[in-house]
Amino acid sequence: MWWLSFRDGGAVIISASSLAHARLLAARNGLGRASNFVEGYFIDMERMSRIESEFVGRMLSPIEAMQVEEMLDRRPRDYATDRRPEPAPKSPRHRN
């Protein structure tokens, strides 16, 4: 799957073999104008599993696009490794 972003903040999630192929399919299917394309990236299967099927194959509004991007950025919590490192002890100040 590919994520395509457009100038107006909208996005399309589409199945294709490459980014160029995704752009062509989106334009052909009336999902976005090629001239309004901003960027695109591949969505791996692990991240794709977080996206509901209703968001695939159509133009997402800017609000929907932000919501889906947040879903893609979320990572399952691993509480064993989710600890923040302790701050390093401060070195004592030297007095003159």
Provide an overview of this structure.
This protein has about 100 residues and is an alpha+beta fold. The chain has one domain. Helices cover about 25% and strands about 20% of the residues. It has three helices and four strands; from the N terminus they run ββαβαβα. The chain has a four-stranded antiparallel beta sheet. A hairpin with a 4-residue loop joins strand 1 and strand 2. The chain is globular and about 55 Å long. About 5% of the residues have low confidence.
Ordered list of secondary-structure elements with their pairings:
Layout: E1 2-6, E2 11-14, H1 19-28, E3 37-42, H2 45-48, E4 59-60, H3 62-73
Antiparallel strand pairs: 1-2, 1-3, 2-4
The structural domain count equals 1
Query: Which of globular, elongated, flat, extended, rod-shaped describes the shape?
Result: globular
How many DSSP-defined strands? 4
Q: Which ranges are low-confidence, i.e. pLDDT below 50, for 5 or more consecutive residues? A: 77-82
- Spatial strand order of the main sheet: 3-1-2-4
- Determine the structural class based on helices, strands and strand pairing: alpha+beta
Overall helicity: 25-40%
Q: Which range does the strand content fall in? A: 15-25%
Helix tally equals 3
State the assembly state of the protein chains. Answer: single chain
Order of helices and strands: EEHEHEH
